[in-house]
Predict the structure.
Amino acid sequence: MQPMAPVVTVAEPVESLQLEDFDQVVRLYWPRIFRFALASLRDQEAAESVAQDCFLRAHHARQRFRGQSSLSTWLMQIAVNLVRDHCRNRRIQFWKRARALAPDLDAVSRSIADRGVSPEGKALVKEQIEAVWKATEKLPEKQRTVFLLRFVEDLNLLEIAAATGLKEGTVKTHLFRATESIRQRLGGIV
Amino acid sequence: MNKHFSSEQISRWMIGERTAQDEEHARQCPECAAKVAGFESAITLFRESVRACGDSYRRPEIPLLAGVRRARRNFVTRPSRWAPVAAALVLLAAIPIYTNSRDRRRQAEMARADAALLEQVDVEISRAVPAPMEPLVKLVSWNTNGTTQTGENR
């Protein structure tokens, strides 16, 4: 058995960053936290609110950060909790708002699909992107969180376990179920 | 060639649980390789779309720490924020003071009552005769050589 390989390699932020320079921490990690919140909540305002809250809490608790996990994992742990609280506390409003303020998927998938050469290719890319978005929306909360952390944020199983407070084996189970569920929902598209 | 990948095997491949045998099969079977590549491609496109969505929204211009400082300033400059807290503190501080002063008042009253009682006892004790006989004392005076004289001059 081989270790999990990242789908796409991305430059990791500097982990040795000092928490004292908190403005720099916010600048560096804001996109990642906001992106995770946006993909989880499908609501720009809620995602902004979660990201703001995440950094405020981190700022208040910065003295307690002992460096047992990386800074990004610690921030992601706070974000995961905030997203979970948001979903639980405002479930009804969340779904109503999510419909109204969802990211403009059509525009995004079109811009990515424009790279395709043929009109058929573009249509297929657009269809695939929208299908995965819809499939992730249908996932149970924990499966969605684990799936996004793995395939969007490129965290490994241990980092996901640290961010979610789940055991590594449980993370693996959720990840497998989420992946299998999405694959089945995609059906004949891929 | 082995059997084609099952749905479960493709999902396991995606999460990194793949054996050397699986990899060998993917190399030799264009059909399974295409299935795996198609799913990987869909996930990669999804990832790019999430990132594009995230990048399309800009971080609010107000720096986070300025927000923290503003919240602190608002607390200081707006009496509506701190007045209830201050009032509660004053009330808490006043309770022991009020209790102490009430205790002191009660002690002073008890001391005054004790003093009045003692004074009354002194008066009772210092009487030469019981109160009902006092009118007689006014009529009869006692001299030092043992004889008794009436109060009237004869």
Chain B touches chain A through 39 residues (CB under 8 Å).
